[in-house]
Amino acid sequence: MSQLPRLIVCISGTGTNLQALIDACHTGTLAAQIVLVVSNRKQAYGLQRAAAAGIPTLYAPLKGWAEREAYDADLARQLLPYQPDLIVLAGWMHIFSGAFLSHFPQQVINLHPALPGAFPGMNAIERAFAAYMQGQITISGCMVHYVIPEVDAGPVIATAIVPFHAGDTLESYAARLHAAEHHLLVQATRQVLSERQAQELVP
Ligand code: GAR
Question: Ligand 1 within 6 A of 181 CB?
Fold first, then answer.
């Protein structure tokens, strides 16, 4: 177990993508171990998923910090002892600054429910679906990318196109998109780990 690459997963919500990673680690689809789950929201259901899987959790609220960068630096300080090989943002609703990212160069990746350059930020699925309904787009999708201080931007690792279907509702489209995300996030995490292994950066 100790030789497996070490993941930290950051969440803010339901944690279905966290669950996909937990399941993939359990079945061996992903040769890695999740050493910590971080949430900036106390009520995030993903914290319960982590606890059920026996994974340590950290609740790190932004509230109380006067400056974002001080919060980011402090969170990095708390994560460093876990010696993560990769930090996966899976529904993490906080934009990291350089004060965090500088501690983990090329080691932070993010899942976003839209294609590169489209619909950055919150409610991307809702905005993509509205654009489809207005005839502006026919496809959307999801991506995993390296994190830079700009929101939902940075070098792309993997994408999945999820077309709209006639008769789609927001709910039916979102369900299909989330299923694609669960697959993509595991695939992209595996890809990054294997690239880092080839460079002998991770065990
Ligand atoms: C996912 O759809 C993810 O792409 C999105 O949050 C959701 C988390 O779902 N992330 C963003 O919008 C980042 N800008 P989950 O908590 O069920 O994994």
Answer: yes
